[in-house]
Amino acid sequence: MTAVFLYGLLLFAVISIAIAVAIFRFKVRASEYSNWGAFGDASSESGPDGMDSRNHLDNDLDSTGNDPDSTGDGDAVEGDLEARAAELVSQMNLDEKASLSSGRTFWTSASMDRLDVPSIWFADGPHGLRRTLGPEEREESHPATCFPTAVGQAASWNRELTMQIGSAIGVEAQARDVQVLLGPGINIKRSPLGGRNFEYFSEDPFLSGKMATAHVRGSQSEGVGAVLKHYVANNQEHHRMSVSAEIGGRTLRQIYLRAFNIPVREANPLAVMLAYNRVNGTFMTEHAELLHVLREEWGYEGLTVSDWGAVQDRVRSAKAGLDLEMPTNSRNDQELAKAVRSGNLSEDILDRRVRKTVETALRGKKNSRSEISFDEEIKARHHDLARRAAAESFVLLKNEDGFLPLDPSAALQVALIGAFAKQPRYQGTGSSRVKPTRMSSVHDGLLDAFGEKQVTYAPGYPYGEGSGDVKVLREEAVEAACQADVALVFGGLPPGSEAEGTDRSKLQMPEEQNRLIEAVSEAQPSTAVVLSNGSAVAMPWHEEPKAILETWLAGQAGGEAKTDVLLGDASPSGRLPVTFPKRLADTPAHLNFPGEDREVRYGERFFVGYRYYDERDIEPLYPFGHGLSYTRFEMDSFSLNTDSIDVRSMQEESGLEAEIQVFNAGDRTGQAVLQLYVEGPEKRLRRPPKVLRGFRKVSLETGETRSIQFEIGKRDLAVWDDRRSRWVIESGEYRVQVGASSRDLPFEQKIEVEGVPKDQGPLLDRHSTVRQWLEDPQGRRAVQPLLRMMGDAEGRDRDDQSDMRDIIANFPLSKLALLSLGGTAEKMVERIVQQVRSNEKPPDTGLDDPKDT
C-alpha cells in the first residue's frame, strides 16, 4: 500500500509539473504572439501623446473586437464559431459549397437561407468608409469621414492616433451594416512613382507594420473585420494585374513579407487579401509557397480573399490556399464542383475553404451592432479626430528664422496663392475614394483668423473650374505677393497623377507650379510653401522659400488643420515616412521600375528607401524620419542595460533594453519623435548600414523631461539566411543608435552579440571554397586532414602547403581535391560534407519555430 501511495504521489507531482510547464509555455507563446518584434512599446506611460503602454495596445480587445473580460473566454467563442461553421458545411451538398466560394454581388459574399448562413458586406476603408449605395453600385457611396490617407497616418508616427482612426472607421462601418473593411494597405513604397503610394504607409516595413497593427486593432475593436492588402509585392500599378515581381528570398523576407508579418502576429486581422500580381512567375492567388508562409509559418488562421477579379485558375487557387474569390463568379464556382467530381480537387480542401468563409460570415453577424447610427454627434466627433490626425501628420521640412507660425494678432497682409488653398486636394483617386461628410479649406480658415481686409487670394495656376492662362495667373500671383507682407503658396500634385491603375511618370510637380513658387519666392522673401501630395516630389526651388510644410493628402479636415499649424495652434509633429530624393536617378529602383514585358526585377534587393541612400552614401533632399517642430528638443543619457549579450538568453522579458532622456528646451508644448536604429556587423550576410527598430512619440510641456525606454528582441538583430532557410543572428559588434531621423543619430552604444555557433559562417557543401571551409570552426577541423593529404600527395612541406592554401583559397573543395588526389577524392569530400551537415541541425534560438520564421 505504501508503495502504491508513493507511486500515486509521484505520478500526481509529475502531472502537476507538466501542467505548470504547459501553462508557462502557453503564456510565453501568447506573449510572443502579441509582442514579437514590438519595439518602443515597453513603457507603461500613457496619455494624450499617443504612446500608451504595450498592454493598452495589445490586451484591451481580442481579434474579433470583443472585450475578453466582459464576454467570457475568447478562445471558447472562436471555437464555437469554428464548430458551428464546420457543422453547417457538413450539411451542404457539393454545389452549395461551391456556390459559397465566390461573392453573390460585387460587394457581398453569398448567403444560404436554408442554413441561415449570412452574407458579408465588404467596403473599402483605408482612410474612410466607402460603402456604396447598393451591392452592385461601383461609384456612388454614402457620406463618411475622410481621414488623412495612409501616408499621412504614417507621417504622424503615432500608433494610438492611427488606432483611433481605425476605430472611428469601424463605428461608421457598423452604422452602415458593413462587416469587413478592405484595408489597411501595407505594400512597401519601393519607388516614389507608385500610383497608390498615398494609400500605403511607408518605405520601411517596421514602420508600416506597426501602423497597420494599430489600424487593424482599431477597426476590429468595434467588431468590424480588417483586411490586410495586398499580399504581397503589389508595389506598382503598371501591369499590376499580370506583372511578375522577381524578388530574392532575403528581400522578400526582410522587406515585403515583414511588413505583413508584424500585423498578422500582433493584430490578427480578420482577412488577408491576395494581390493581382505574380511573384517569381506565379500569381499570388495561386502561390502555394507564399500562402504556406502565411498559414503554416506565421500560424495565420483567418480568411484569405482575392483582390477583385484577381483569380486566374479557381481550382489551382483553392489548392494553394485561397478561401474566397471576389466578386461573384458562378462559372468558377461550377469549375470547383466539377474538379471535385472528377477527382482533380479534394472535397476536403473545398470544405476547408468554405468553412473559413462561413465562419467569417457568422462572426460578422455576431458582432453586428444595429444600435449604432451615424448621427450628427458622431460625425462632429470624427471630424474633430480627422482634424487632429491631419495636424499631427504635417511635416515641417524647413523653417528658416522661425518663419512659421504666423501671428494672427499682427497686422499682417497675407497673400494666399494657389488653387489648392480654396480647392484642396485631400485624397487620392481610385477604390479608396471617400465621399466626405463635410469639407474645409485653409483659405476660409485664414480668412476667419486674419479678416478679409488682411487676406488676398490668387489661384496662381490652372486647376478645376478656375482654369486660365498660365502666364496671366502667375503674374497676378506675383503682384499679390508683392503687395503683401507674407505669401503662402499652396501646391502639390494634381489628382490624376496619383491614382489607382497608373503610376507617376516623373518626380516633378507640374512645371507651372514650380515656376510659380520660384517667381513668388523671388518677389516676396517672406514666402512659405504648403504641399499637398501623396508621395515624394522634387523641389528644385527648395532653397528659395523661408518655410516648407508637407501636408500630404490630409482628408476632409485638412483645411482647418493647416490653419491650426500655420497659426501655431498646433505644433507640427510629423516625420517623413519616406525619403525625399533630390532627383529620380538617385532612387533605389530607378533602373528597375516599372520593369518591362510584364516583369520587374527588384534589383535593389533589400536596399529599399533610406537603406539604399545610406549604402550608396547619397545625400537625399530630406531624409527618412526628418521633421521639424516649433519647439526644440534635446536628448541625453542614452544607455543600454548591457554591453554584451548571448542571443540564447534573450527572451521577451530579458532582452536588450535601451533608455534615453528627452527634454523640451523650447518655449511651447510639442511632440518629439524618437527613432532607434540598429546597425549589424559586416559578416557573411550583407546587410544595410542600419534599420529602424523602434520609435516613440511623446508630448512634452516646456521644460519637461521624460525617460523613454525601448526593448530590442532577437528578431530585431536577425537576418534571413537563404541557404539555411531560416532567420539567423550573426555574432559581432552591433550599434544601437537613437536620434531624430535616419541621418540625425547623435547617440550610439555598442554591444557585443554572441550568436548561436551553428548560425555562423556559410552552409558548407562540396562547392564551398577552401577559404570558406577554413573560416568555419567545424569546417576547419573536418577539412584539415584532407588538406594535409593533398600536401603530402604533391610532396610539399608545411611551408609550401601554407603557401598553396593562399593560392588556392578560392577553389571549390571538390575541384581542388580532384586535381590533387584524382578520383579517390570524391568519396572523401562527400564524407566530410556529411560530417559537417550532421551538426547543422537548426539551433534552438526561438527564431526557428515555424510560427516565428
Automatic annotation (TrEMBL):
<dbReference type="Pfam" id="PF01915">
    <property type="entry name" value="Glyco_hydro_3_C"/>
</dbReference>
<dbReference type="InterPro" id="IPR013783">
    <property type="entry name" value="Ig-like_fold"/>
</dbReference>
<comment type="similarity">
    <text>Belongs to the glycosyl hydrolase 3 family.</text>
</comment>
<dbReference type="InterPro" id="IPR036881">
    <property type="entry name" value="Glyco_hydro_3_C_sf"/>
</dbReference>
<keyword id="KW-0326">Glycosidase</keyword>
<dbReference type="InterPro" id="IPR017853">
    <property type="entry name" value="GH"/>
</dbReference>
<feature type="region of interest" description="Disordered">
    <location>
        <begin position="44"/>
        <end position="77"/>
    </location>
</feature>
<dbReference type="InterPro" id="IPR001764">
    <property type="entry name" value="Glyco_hydro_3_N"/>
</dbReference>
<dbReference type="InterPro" id="IPR050288">
    <property type="entry name" value="Cellulose_deg_GH3"/>
</dbReference>
<dbReference type="GO" id="GO:0005975">
    <property type="term" value="P:carbohydrate metabolic process"/>
</dbReference>
<dbReference type="InterPro" id="IPR019800">
    <property type="entry name" value="Glyco_hydro_3_AS"/>
</dbReference>
<dbReference type="Pfam" id="PF14310">
    <property type="entry name" value="Fn3-like"/>
</dbReference>
<feature type="domain" description="Fibronectin type III-like">
    <location>
        <begin position="672"/>
        <end position="742"/>
    </location>
</feature>
<dbReference type="GO" id="GO:0008422">
    <property type="term" value="F:beta-glucosidase activity"/>
</dbReference>
<dbReference type="Pfam" id="PF00933">
    <property type="entry name" value="Glyco_hydro_3"/>
</dbReference>
<dbReference type="InterPro" id="IPR026891">
    <property type="entry name" value="Fn3-like"/>
</dbReference>
<protein>
    <submittedName>
        <fullName>Beta-glucosidase</fullName>
        <ecNumber>3.2.1.21</ecNumber>
    </submittedName>
</protein>
<dbReference type="InterPro" id="IPR002772">
    <property type="entry name" value="Glyco_hydro_3_C"/>
</dbReference>
<keyword id="KW-0378">Hydrolase</keyword>
<dbReference type="InterPro" id="IPR036962">
    <property type="entry name" value="Glyco_hydro_3_N_sf"/>
</dbReference>
<keyword id="KW-0119">Carbohydrate metabolism</keyword>
